[in-house]
Amino acid sequence: MSLLGFARVLVVTAVEAERAAVAGGLGAATAVTTAAVGVGPAAAAAGTARLLTRAECAGEPFDAVLCAGIGGGFAPLAAVGGLVIADVSIAADLGAEDHDAFVDVEALGFGRSRHPADRRLLDGLRAALPDAVVAPVLTVSTATGSAARTAALAARVPGAGAEAMEGFGVAAAAEGVAFAELRAISNPVGPRDRAAWRIPDALARLRTAFAALAAFPAPPGPAEPPAPAA
Ligand SMILES: O=C(O)c1cccc(C(=O)CC[C@H]2O[C@@H](n3cnc4c(=O)[nH]cnc43)[C@H](O)[C@@H]2O)c1
């Protein structure tokens, strides 16, 4: 059985609690592979590349990769307990400082810091999760914990919805395969207050999101070629 019309889907999370929430939501009905590959963009890229390569060598390549998990939400766009679908996953701290300014890798003249979501996957996620906010999701190597950095990131990416630590790495590994990122918001991005993180609520939201994805009907496939005339 497919997910959103994709036949073989890999869902990558950082930690096992996120993977278990995803798998719990999917239930037994859907042939989707879930894997926890570690925290941060490097672990995410390495783990995703390994899984994609293994599947391809086995003659069963994935046709879609979803990065999923909990994340920090930028107020007022993304509230704790809500969902953010990334229309683009951005490596928000990949670049150079020029005194008080940040220069991204595009401006430096090498590499890229943005991976847009696959259009078909994004459309499917939007349709199946109509309450989700659709906005850029930032990938960072250091979770934000101050008002100054929150303001700097919001200025760097106006309209940012969420911050997490893996999306850009997963996307980089999945180049050439349909990719998207989905985050359930566990905490506001802002001055660090670990006691305010609502991880169980976010994991529960992740689980219901994947139950909704599994239950969503696949979009109609390409038109069948007309039957030859008798
Ligand atoms: O402590 C637990 O029980 C627990 C259960 C599930 C997940 C966690 C994590 O800490 C996951 C780390 C993961 O979460 C993302 N994340 C969440 N909030 C933020 C944030 O404000 N800034 C950056 N990343 C965030 C991130 O992708 C981490 O990999 C703990």
Describe this structure in words.
Keywords: Glycosidase, Hydrolase, Menaquinone biosynthesis. This is Futalosine hydrolase. This protein is α/β, with parallel strands linked by helices. It has seven helices and ten strands. Helix 5 (147-156) links the parallel strand 8 (133-139) and strand 9 (162-164). Helix 1 (16-26) packs parallel to helix 7 and helix 2 (41-57) packs parallel to helix 6 (167-173). The longest helix is centred in the first third of the chain and has 17 residues, at 41-57. The two termini are 33 Å apart. The model has no long low-confidence stretch (mean pLDDT 95). The ligand O=C(O)c1cccc(C(=O)CC[C@H]2O[C@@H](n3cnc4c(=O)[nH]cnc43)[C@H](O)[C@@H]2O)c1 is lined by residues 14-15, 17-18, 39, 69-72, 140, 143-144, 163-166, 186-187, 189, 199.
Topology:
Blueprint: E1 9-13, H1 16-26, E2 32-36, H2 41-57, E3 64-73, E4 83-91, E5 95-98, E6 101-104, H3 105-108, E7 114-116, H4 119-128, E8 133-139, H5 147-156, E9 162-164, H6 167-173, E10 178-188, H7 199-215
For the structure shown, list the relevant keywords.
230 residues; alpha/beta; five-stranded mixed beta barrel; two-stranded antiparallel sheet; 33% helix; binds the ligand O=C(O)c1cccc(C(=O)CC[C@H]2O[C@@H](n3cnc4c(=O)[nH]cnc43)[C@H](O)[C@@H]2O)c1; FL_hydrolase_MqnB
Rg from Cα: 18 Å
Number of strands: 10
Unreliable stretches covering 5 or more consecutive residues: none
**Strand proportion:** 25-35%
Secondary-structure-derived class: alpha/beta
Report mean pLDDT, rounded to a whole number. Answer: 95
The largest sheet is: 5 strands, mixed, barrel
Oligomer status: single chain
Helicity, in percent? 25-40%
Shape, per Cα inertia axes: globular
Number of helices: 7
What is the string of SSEs from the N terminus onward? EHEHEEEEHEHEHEHEH
How far is it from the N-terminal to the C-terminal residue, by CA? Answer: 33 Å
Strand order, largest beta sheet? 3-9-8-4-10
Bound molecules: ligand LNDFFVEH
